[in-house]
């Protein structure tokens, strides 16, 4: 920086500089961290990061410009994992592609023979679980916008495979990864138990356990969760009168409470193959039944369009529920896909323990 520019900057109040920086996009802000130490310190401040997110969400709502994170797992042959593909698309009827996202090379080594899964997205942070094609797993919190990620420590032991969820506590401004387990390990054997929530706090960097006085139930470890209105929701099954019925478990992240939500009679039964998602407005749950097929037909839904894989060549397409017309994403060979909302954010930029790529 030239001496002239330094002198000019001294004449500007810090509040004005902050107000200007708040309005910039992520890429521009990253460049601004190289201008001077004071700007770098300001941009990496946690208060600035939260304020920038609030401003970004407000502008996106006003302009009706929203991004979607598209994840596709490409399979060779029948079960051989090839690669994870990530891209950003605009949330419009055409699903126009914004850009491809580079997957961290260090994580590629971890997932060399294993596919990752998007547990959820929240305020610009992506929670990944490497558990689609294996019993072992790794958990990662990833921000593609600032090219940083944090690998989480393993959850506390003593419980069987659980279902993961991802949410944000707006009261404490903390991101939480939740593993909800319904099986206890004793003498290398699994036993049903009341639900136990193992909660990872990004702010604290550690796991804690919460026990709930609810009847035992069964959950699918890789089934989708939905973070809506401050709570993480999962589908669960319980045996009653010799038949399994569906219901919803809802974990409120701020109060750390767990409750059951009963479904309408027509949606209760296991044979429907239900799937849970978030509605297009992000304010309510979406519940969908899968077709009677050997493949997953309904994979995810957003803004009135179903994202699915055509069985013949595994081509990824979207189906408009009103016009009944298909649109191709130009991606084939995918076995698993997901579509999640995404907001650009500076989260993890201020964390020294985050890995860069």
TrEMBL record:
It comes from the Eukaryota. InterPro entries: F-box-assoc_dom_typ1, F-box-assoc_interact_dom, F-box-like_dom_sf, F-box_dom, SCF_F-box_component. Residues 6-52 form the F-box domain. Pfam families: F-box, FBA_1. CDD domains: F-box_AtFBW1-like. SUPFAM superfamilies: F-box domain (SSF81383). NCBIfam families: F_box_assoc_1 (TIGR01640). This is F-box domain-containing protein. It comes from Rubus argutus (Southern blackberry).
């Amino acid at each position: 920086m030239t001496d002239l520019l330094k002198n000019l900057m001294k004449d500007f109040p810090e509040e004005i500089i902050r107000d200007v920086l708040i309005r910039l996009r992520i890429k521009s802000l990253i460049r601004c961290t190289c201008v001077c130490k004071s700007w770098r310190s300001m941009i990496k401040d946690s208060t600035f990061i939260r304020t920038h997110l609030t401003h970004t969400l407000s502008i996106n709502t006003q302009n009706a410009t929203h991004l979607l994170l598209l994840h596709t797992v490409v399979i060779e042959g029948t079960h051989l994992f090839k690669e994870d593909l990530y891209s950003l698309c605009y949330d419009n009827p055409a699903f126009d592609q914004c850009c491809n996202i580079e997957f961290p090379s260090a994580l590629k080594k971890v997932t060399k023979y294993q596919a990752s899964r998007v547990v959820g997205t929240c305020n610009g942070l992506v929670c990944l679980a490497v558990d689609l094609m294996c019993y072992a797993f790794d958990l990662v919190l990833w921000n593609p916008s600032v090219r940083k990620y944090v690998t989480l420590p393993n959850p506390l032991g003593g419980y069987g495979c659980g279902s993961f969820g991802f949410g944000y506590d707006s009261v404490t401004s903390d991101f939480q990864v939740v593993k909800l387990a319904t099986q206890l390990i004793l003498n290398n054997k699994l036993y049903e138990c009341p639900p136990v929530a193992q909660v990872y706090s990004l702010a604290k960097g550690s796991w804690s356990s919460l026990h709930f006085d609810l009847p035992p139930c069964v959950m699918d470890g890789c089934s989708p969760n939905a973070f809506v209105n401050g709570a993480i929701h999962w589908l669960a099954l319980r045996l009653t009168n010799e038949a399994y019925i569906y219901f919803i478990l809802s974990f409120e992240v701020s109060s750390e409470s767990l409750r059951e939500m009963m479904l309408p009679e027509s949606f209760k039964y296991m044979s429907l193959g239900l799937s849970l998602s978030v509605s297009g407005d992000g304010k309510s749950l979406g519940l969908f039944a899968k077709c009677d097929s050997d493949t997953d037909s309904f994979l995810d839904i957003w803004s009135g369009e179903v994202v699915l894989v055509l069985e013949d060549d595994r081509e990824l397409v979207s189906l408009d529920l009103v016009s009944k017309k298909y649109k191709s994403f130009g991606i084939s060979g995918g076995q698993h896909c997901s579509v999640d909302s995404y907001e650009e954010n500076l989260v993890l930029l201020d964390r020294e323990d985050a890995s860069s790529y």
